[in-house]
């Protein structure tokens, strides 16, 4: 079983729609969690951290469920500029483990 | 703001050649990482260094060596390149365990 699993997509979503991604992780001792965004042929960049209480940043909402070991990302009112690959990342103490990423394309 | 600097950005090697990928960060981070990214495989950890003087294997260490020269620099060496090592390589650094990692711009390596 992969340590961090994501649905690879692709997700093709009309502009203005709401889209949700889920990610599961296998190591119950994992300490911190993140969503990264990666544009084509670019390096990954932090989108947001994920806290146990859930957190929101504008149109983006991230949630963590430690009991079920999954992380979610919700994007509301999607924009064309949201087209990218979204990576779920788990910090297991000394190393960061990435999911394979979910590709999102926003359709005009 | 340099952040994480990787060199070179592009490289073509012949099978059996060796090379070293350089990475330096100016954020005083303890942890540094080397990943490779292949289509459909996501980012896979090759080696990491939790602090100056320590290195540990990640998911795919075979065929690679690393050196944490000092707190700033973490190099990745391919002793005898193989076509299977054709990939995009990313170096990253991070501070505390609960903070984000910052990435270099990547090295696109082709082994022919």
**Quaternary organisation of the protein chains:** heterodimer
Termini separation of chain A: 37 Å
Tell how many strands the DSSP assignment of chain A holds: 11
* Overall outline of chain B: globular
Instruction: Compute the separation of the termini of chain B in Å.
Output: 35 Å
The helix fraction of chain A, in percent, is under 10%
- How would you describe the shape of chain A? globular
Helix content of chain B: under 10%
On the 0-100 scale, what is the average pLDDT of chain B?
93
The string of secondary-structure elements of chain A, in order, is EEEEEEEEEEE
Q: Largest beta sheet of chain B, briefly?
A: 7 strands, mixed
Can you tell me the residue ranges of chain A where pLDDT is under 50 for at least 5 consecutive residues? Answer: none
Q: Largest sheet of chain A at a glance?
A: 6 strands, mixed
| Average pLDDT metric of chain A | 92
Secondary-structure-based class of chain B equals: mainly beta
Most extensive interface: A-B, 22 and 25 residues
Helix segment tally of chain B: 0
């Amino acid at each position: 079983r992969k340590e961090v699993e994501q649905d690879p997509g692709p997700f093709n979503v009309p502009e203005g729609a709401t889209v949700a991604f889920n990610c599961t992780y296998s190591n119950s001792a994992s300490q911190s969690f993140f969503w990264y965004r990666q544009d084509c042929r670019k390096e990954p960049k932090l989108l947001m951290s994920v806290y146990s209480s859930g957190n929101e940043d504008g149109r983006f909402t991230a949630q963590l469920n430690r009991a079920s070991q999954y992380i979610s990302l919700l994007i509301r009112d999607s924009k064309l500029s949201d087209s990218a690959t979204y990576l779920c990342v788990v910090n297991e103490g000394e190393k960061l483990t990435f999911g394979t990423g979910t590709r999102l394309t926003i359709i005009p | 703001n340099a952040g994480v600097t990787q060199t070179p950005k592009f490289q073509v090697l012949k099978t059996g050649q060796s090379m070293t990928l350089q990475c330096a960060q100016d954020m005083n981070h303890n942890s540094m990482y080397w990943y490779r990214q292949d289509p459909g495989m996501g980012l896979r950890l090759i080696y990491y260094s939790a602090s100056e003087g320590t290195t540990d294997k990640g998911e795919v260490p075979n065929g690679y060596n690393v050196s944490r020269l000092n707190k700033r620099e973490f190099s990745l060496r391919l002793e005898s390149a193989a076509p299977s090592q054709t990939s995009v390589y990313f170096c990253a650094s991070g501070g505390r365990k609960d903070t984000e990692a910052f990435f270099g711009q990547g090295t696109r390596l082709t082994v022919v």
